[in-house]
Amino acid sequence: MSLKSWISRRLFGWFRRRSRVTVVRLAGVIGVGGLGRGGLTLHGVAGQLERAFEPSRLAAVALVINSPGGSPVQSALIAKRIRELADEKKVPVLAFVEDVAASGGYWLAVAADEIFADQNSVVGSIGVISAGFGFQELIARHGIERRVHVTGERKMMLDPFRPENPEDVERLMVLQGEIYDSFKELVRLRRGDRLRGDDDDSVFSGEVWLGRRAVELGLIDGLGELSTVIRARYGKKVEIREIAEERGWLASRLSFGASAAVAAGADSGDLAAGAVRAALTAIEERAWWARYGL
């Protein structure tokens, strides 16, 4: 065997033995956005997650999380899928918090076996929130009459164009309480003995903390960013591969074309209503981030 062949074989064998860590980024408000504004959903990230667990010689899957929260349903669905794949492939999952992993963002983080954050990352907000707007006085001031015909006494619960009904609020609090209990149960299950200050007045109060305090409370396992932690654990030669979102140029253009076609066929009333919805969605998304000074 020539020296060149021997070197080639050795290099090939070295590359084959290198450990791999795949990376999935989970960034943004969780849930379906409005009028072309996407959010984190299981449908949107399922392909990425599955591809992240496919490679051979996989040492771990890393989640890079930067989310202020959002839909509890989508948070639960994404977290559940992560755990299903991790258990099926028997691969550890590490979460790395960037600016914020709060509320639903922290729900995603606890799907990991270990959580790391920067000392200035915002972590926590274990709780449930519902926010909206009330327009009844606005439409009355402008002489607008709203006509809605429904069956079912609860069908218009918390309608933003009617005065708030205390019974509707009470019912909402019951629903929120059930989601809150599910959230707490998941955190206790995933964090186990690492969790400290385990009472509703501290960890589960809805409060947020920066990285160092989050370590003390057991909400996360340590301070550090992805590259440093991964190389310290799996060696400097570890292959770190980011799994990109499956959305090519053609898909983007088709989506844009479909939206344009819908808009072209819509009347002015539909377009105005759509513009209002888009504006409110943008305001609501901005409010999610603003809660944490971002």
Sheet with the most strands?
Answer: 8 strands, mixed
Instruction: Briefly note the CATH topology name.
Output: 2-enoyl-CoA Hydratase, Chain A, domain 1
* Helix and strand pattern: HEHEHEHEEHHEHEHEHH
Q: What would you give as the CATH superfamily?
A: 2-enoyl-CoA Hydratase, Chain A, domain 1
Helicity, as a percent range? 40-55%
Class per helix and strand makeup: alpha/beta
Radius of gyration: 23 Å
Strand content of the residues, in percent? 5-15%
CATH class: Alpha Beta
Shape: elongated
The end-to-end distance, rounded to whole angstroms, is 61 Å
The pLDDT mean sits at: 79
By CATH, the architecture is named Alpha-Beta Complex
Total strands: 8
List keywords for this structure.
15% strand; alpha/beta; 2-enoyl-CoA Hydratase, Chain A, domain 1; single chain; 8 strands; 294 residues; 10 helices
Structure commentary:
By secondary structure, the protein is an alpha/beta fold. The chain has one domain: 2-enoyl-CoA Hydratase, Chain A, domain 1. Helix content is 47%, strand content 15%. It has helices spanning 3-17, 42-52, 72-89, 104-109, 136-141, 166-191, 211-216, 226-234, 249-265, 268-290; strands spanning 20-27, 58-67, 93-102, 114-117, 122-124, 208-210, 222-223, 239-242. Strands 1, 2, 3, 4, 5, 6, 7 and 8 form an eight-stranded mixed beta sheet that branches. Helix 2 runs parallel beside helix 3. The N and C termini lie far apart (61 Å). Residues 249-264 have low confidence and may be disordered.
